[in-house]
Amino acid sequence: MNIPDMIIAIDGYSSTGKSSFARLIADELGFLYLDSGALYRGVTLWAQENGVISPEGHIDIPALEKGLEGLDIHFEGHGSDASTFIGGRCVEKEIRTLAVSGMVSPIAAVPQVREYVDRRLRVLGGRKRVVLDGRDIGTTVFPDAELKIFMTADLDVRAERRMKEMRSKGEDVRYEDVLRNLQERDYIDSHREASPLSCAEDAIVLDNSRMTLEDQMVWFRGIIARMADGSDGKN
Ligand code: DC
Question: How many CB atoms lie within 10 A of CB 226?
Fold first, then answer.
């Protein structure tokens, strides 16, 4: 199949499985995968470790802005093997803890942080043949992306999946805490002033509440086959 050069933007709610889906797509198409949430999580971890966030959760904006100037967050490896680094240190595990999840939405609502992440994504993703996942890729970062997918799933399904994922990584979390964190992030992500989470008008909606990852790949292959035939993938 002739896969056209393109940017694939995958947006949607927290814990809808965007990154697992995006990584598989990148593997299958041989595209670069960029996890925009990992950049926001990396900034959050850095801020927590460097006293930019107080124990009460107050963010020191001038210190944050200054730190962003020299902050090197990047990815190493491809597709399903991509990991997040701050300088020479792999932080893939640390950025997925509940401690980071608890502060990432307020950090991601800071306009200077969004500018920093958008700039990095545009540099890294500007060469097409790339899959990105996040909240505002199709609306703000790459509004001209050739394929936009917006992912959603029932809240209880998302909380259950997230809890299992965290427990499988050895984090001892309670269902109620994971559920509350998801509700809070949904609210902050959709109500913040700077590029809130919203579905682009030209995005294809994927509700995967009752779909396995393999079901989603079958759905995706149908879209790609139609695009390879010259359509926009929607019909
Ligand atoms: O996808 P994730 O759960 O790893 O993202 C972590 C947080 O980062 C999420 O709560 C909102 C924020 N985010 C964002 O505001 N914009 C993006 N493009 C990606 C993530």
Answer: 14
